[in-house]
# Entry
Amino acid sequence: MIENEDNFIANSLWSDTANQTPACPVLKAEIETDVAIIGAGFTGLSAALHLAKLGKKVVVLEAQTPGWGASGRNGGQVNPGLIENPNHAISKFGAAMGQRMIALSGGAGKLVFDLIAQHDIQCDALPVGWLRAAHNAAGMQNLEQKATQWQAHGVPMQSLGAVEVAELLGTEAYVGGILDPRGGNIHPLNYALGLADAAIAAGAMICGQTKVEAVATGESLHTIISAHGRVRARKVLVCTNGYTGDLIPGLRQSVVPIRSIQVATAPLSDNLRASILPGLHAPSDTRRLLSYFRTDAAGRFIMGARGAYTSAATKARFAQARAITAELFPQLANVKWQYEWGGYIAATADHYPHLHDMGNGIAAGLGYNGRGVAMATAMGKVLGDWASGVHNSDLDFPVSHLRKIPFHGLHRLVVEATIASYKFMDRVGL
# Structure
């Protein structure tokens, strides 16, 4: 696993304001179960909840605590849909599967908010929509194309002019935008903890501080081995996303971990709060290295960006996120910054999440490309369907072959070079 406990990315707003973590004892026995799930982030917890509701015996094994990875370390924006335009899924995967993917991804935000309501998860949920802001004319053209396609699939996307965006955001930095009513924002760590509570209440067992050391495959039962215990399971779900190690050969090399970072202010004064995001939206913009920002329930301002692989470079990007904030909102130029943190997301070569059936009762879902709150929740349900016996052809997401990314060992150099080029293009307006 990629360790993500360095002090310089651990000063998290979400951790500081988290609800109580449910009891997740260390596995210290040998037990048998229907389904073993490795990883207690959004994917694994969603799968566990889904399966437990179906009456399956489920054990979740987490190396740390629920939500410890990217699930509890992101910006808390609920962004439905896939990275690519919806019609791209139809052209790539065919009409039938493409339509199912569109329905699944498009409904992923509703799934999140429905689970929150059903299980009374206290995570400051605000289904106020996802505002996508265009930083130039080309960006606006791209957004309008996305909106047109989603409108054709029944989503009432709203196109906004510069004045409307300025009124909703409190900045005149954008030329226009679109409002996606399916999105919103949450406290992501509390959402993860709430999913864990709900899964436990439904009958699932979650074992924390239980790092999986090996998976020994068998014909009918697989053995998941940790330091102090073992789980024998008929089905195994690997839900480790940007923290994927070498338990399953080739899986780690199928995605690229990218550090996502956030900074947050102290609670703003009433005057400042009134001038920024009056509709409490969770915007992101159309830059290649996009800025995404929001406020939390206490009126703190949060800015998100992409981090780096070294501590020095990541600290520099924390500073850049604060500088971008002052550019967008000059009234925040002298505000007190209180938090800075980060976690690893997972990117794929084709920008789609991946669902892999490794055969013999082992499957994995990962690679959300920065859309993990909504899509990981939806993928968890799909994995739950798979583990409950739904045939691959009947799932709402395509099962793909596990493919290693070429020259994966050079991913850090490639990512940093790509980020540098994107930064330059954003600066010159390309």
About this structure: The domain at 7-124+186-257+348-412 is CATH 3.50.50.60 (FAD/NAD(P)-binding domain).
